[in-house]
Amino acid sequence: MEILKVEHLSKVYGKDENKVVALDDVSFSVEKGEFVAIMGASGSGKTTLLNTISTIDYVTSGHILVGDKDITELKEDEKADFRKDNLGFIFQDFNLLDTLNIEENIALALIINGEDQNKVDKKVESIALKLGIKDILKKFPYEVSGGQKQRCACARALINNPKIILADEPTGALDSKSSRMLLETMDDMNDKLKATILMVTHDSFSASFCKRVLFLKDGKIFNEIIRGEKTRKEFFNEILDVLTLLGGDVGNVK
């Protein structure tokens, strides 16, 4: 079942001699329960693609369907509701609020939306149990480890049972140990909780946790590889081979 369908997507900034083509006739789809990486060098269009899917940026032409809804036709006042009801986000710096405890950080979106407190409590407890952070719900972000903060951020992304989770360079500010912990948590979210995840990354180590990798070059899809039955190490090496052809940055096995 297709959760996301991108059809002939183009995004152009500026006009005439100042025109920059960020995305050029991009088409792909993501199935329910997939974990997909988008890779490419700086300026390849990765973040622009994520921003159009999250309705933060407009498309110049083409269509993006999430479920059966064409989000390129949403009015401005409909976009916030669409994001709230359909998308989860994992940010590079987690964006946890130090004045709220872990439970309140996870529940924030539900509370803002006026959801019944009993339902909020049950949802938070359920997702915290699945991610192994139930025992720290009353603690504040400064009282818990980096890995627990990451799991809190993942729980917040999952709390509304979104159709798709968008992650933009989620390991970009992390050391290798924290990166591995976050990626293993995201892998668990995908494998055990059947979360659908689309992750933008320049890092081949991060991408090797995914089931499929799309490579962008100059705003176009350059290549696509599928993990299948390969080990993560074998998939990592295949990613490196494509990045060598692409001329992009490569990461290291961590």
Plain-language structure description:
The structure is a single chain. The protein contains eight helices and ten strands. It is of the alpha/beta class and 254 residues long. It has a single domain (2-246), classed as P-loop containing nucleotide triphosphate hydrolases (Rossmann fold), CATH 3.40.50.300. Helix 3 (102-112) packs parallel to helix 5.
Order of SSEs, N→C? EEEHEEHEHHHEHEHEEH
- Sketch the major β-sheet: 6 strands, mixed
Order of the strands making up the biggest sheet: 6-7-8-3-9-10
CATH structural fold name: Rossmann fold
Overall domain count: 1
Count of strand segments: 10
Look at the structure and give the CATH class: Alpha Beta
**What's the CATH H-level superfamily name?**
P-loop containing nucleotide triphosphate hydrolases
Helix content class: 25-40%
Principal-axes shape call: globular
Helix count from the secondary structure assignment = 8
Mean pLDDT: 90
* Alpha-beta classification: alpha/beta
Which range does the strand content fall in? 15-25%
End-to-end separation in angstroms reads 34 Å
User: How does CATH name the architecture?
Assistant: 3-Layer(aba) Sandwich
What radius of gyration results from the CA coordinates? 18 Å
Low-confidence stretches: 250-254
Give structural attributes:
Rossmann fold; 8 helices; about 35% helix; disordered C terminus
Quick recap:
The chain is built from eight helices and ten strands. By secondary structure, the chain is an alpha/beta fold.
